[in-house]
Design goal:
The chain is mostly helical. It contains ten helices and no strands.
Amino acid sequence: MSHPALPPLPAGHSPRAAAFWLGFHLRRNLKKRAFWLWALAVIIVFAVVMGTAGLRGGGLGNLFILRITPLLSLFFATGVLREEIEDQTLTYGFSRPVGRAWLYGARVVAALVPVALLGLVPAFIAGTAAGPTAPPRYLAASALIILAYGGVFALLGLLVRWPTWLGLAFLVAWEQPVALVPGFFGRLTLLTHARAVAGLPAGESPWSGLLTVPPAWASALVLAAVAALTFWLGGWLISRREYQLAK
C-alpha cells in the first residue's frame, strides 16, 4: 500500500517531535476532500437556516454548538489512528525515541483543528446575533465541546473496532435525549455543560422549564476535565500497545 513521503522526524525531544507531527498531519487533513465537503455542507446548512428557517441567536447556537459540532468531532476524531494503520505510517513515528503520548496528542489536535475551523466561525456569528456578551461564551463552549468530544471519540477509536457507529449511538441515544432530562441525569451529558457555558436556551421540550443549568464556570471545568482525562487515557493506552505494519 502506498503512502505519502514523510520527512525526517525529530528524535529525542518529545515536544519538538509532537509539533512536527501536528504540522504534518494538519496539512494532510486540510487537503483532504472530506474536509472541504464538510465545509461546503456547513456553509449550505448555515445559509438555509438563516434564509428559510429563520433561526437567530440561541437557535443558531443550539444547532451548531450542540448538534453539528459534536458530529464533526465524531467524524474527524474517531479515525485518528485507523488512518495511520491503513496508510502503514503509524510505526514511523512510534519507532523513534519519542514519547508516544506526545505523538498521540499531536495527532488528535491535528484532527480537531479542522473541526475548530468549521465550528468556531458559525458559533461566533451566532453569538453576534444573540447579543454583545454571547460571542465569547459561544466560542468558549464550542472550543470546550470540540476538545471534550474529540478526546472521547479519539479514545473510543483506540478501544473498539467500529468507533464511528458507537460514537453516533452515544450521541443519538444518550447525549441528545438525556441532556433534556431534568435533574442529575441531565448533568451526565457533555451537551448540558456546553449549553451552560454558552448560556443557550434549553429548547422547546414540554419539560424545558424544569431543567436546571449548572454554573458556567463549573461546566467549563467539567468539559476541560473530560478533555484532559480522555487525552491522558489515550496517550497512556497507546504507550502500552504494540503496533505492527501489515506485510
